[in-house]
C-alpha cells in the first residue's frame, strides 16, 4: 500500500550514475536573478581534462594510466591530474551550499574547453566512472538526463566572463599571494566568483581577477 507520501527526490539515471534531481532548491534563471541574487560561482581553472586514444578507444588522460604517452610527448606528469577535478566536483556538489541552491560551477580546461555543471548532477563516486563520463562529455559536448531534456553537463562557448554576472567580484586563489584570508569575510548578498586551480602544477589562475588571495588552511 502507498503511504500517501511521495519522495521529495526524483532520481534519474544516465550511463554512469544515478542523479538526484531537485537537490538545489532554486537555480537562478532570469537575468536579474543571475546578476543580483546571492550565490557562489566556482571556476575550476586549468583542469586536466583531455582525451587520449588508446587502441581503438578514447580514455581520459591521467598520470597513472598514461605515463608512457606523457613521457613520449615531454608532458609534465603533474599536469595530468583529472582526479583533482573529480574530488573538487564531488565536494562542491555534495555541499550544503549546493543543496541550498546557492552554487554554480564551471570548469575551464588546459585545452580551453569551458564546461557548465548543472547543480542537479551527482558526480560518479568512482574515478573510473568519472573518466568515462568526461570522455563522453568531451566528445558529445553534453550529458543529458536519461528521462528528459535536462543537460547535466555541457560544453559552452568561451570566455567564461560572458557567463558571469556583470561587475561581480572575481577572487583568484594562489599559492604565491601574500594575502592570507579567512574566506568567510567574502560572504555577501551578491554573486561572488572564486577561481581555483585544479591541477597539480601550482600554476596561476589567470590575470583578470579583482583580487588574489591565499586561503587559510584551518577555519574555525
Automatic annotation (TrEMBL):
Report the principal subcellular site. Answer: nucleus
Compartments (UniProt record): Nucleus, Nucleolus
Q: What is this protein called?
A: Ribosomal RNA small subunit methyltransferase NEP1
UniProt similarity note: Belongs to the class IV-like SAM-binding methyltransferase superfamily. RNA methyltransferase NEP1 family.
An example molecular function term from Gene Ontology annotations: rRNA binding
Q: What biological processes does GO assign it?
A: rRNA base methylation
Gene3D superfamilies annotated for this entry? 3.40.1280.10
InterPro entries in the cross-refs = Alpha/beta_knot_MTases (IPR029028), Rbsml_bgen_MeTrfase_EMG1/NEP1 (IPR005304), tRNA_m1G_MTases_N (IPR029026)
> What Pfam families does the entry give?
EMG1
Q: Name one GO cellular component term.
A: small-subunit processome
Region annotation Disordered: residue ranges?
1-27
Q: Report keywords, A-Z.
A: Methyltransferase, Nucleus, Ribosome biogenesis, RNA-binding, rRNA processing, rRNA-binding, S-adenosyl-L-methionine, Transferase
Against CDD domains, the record matches this protein to: Nep1-like
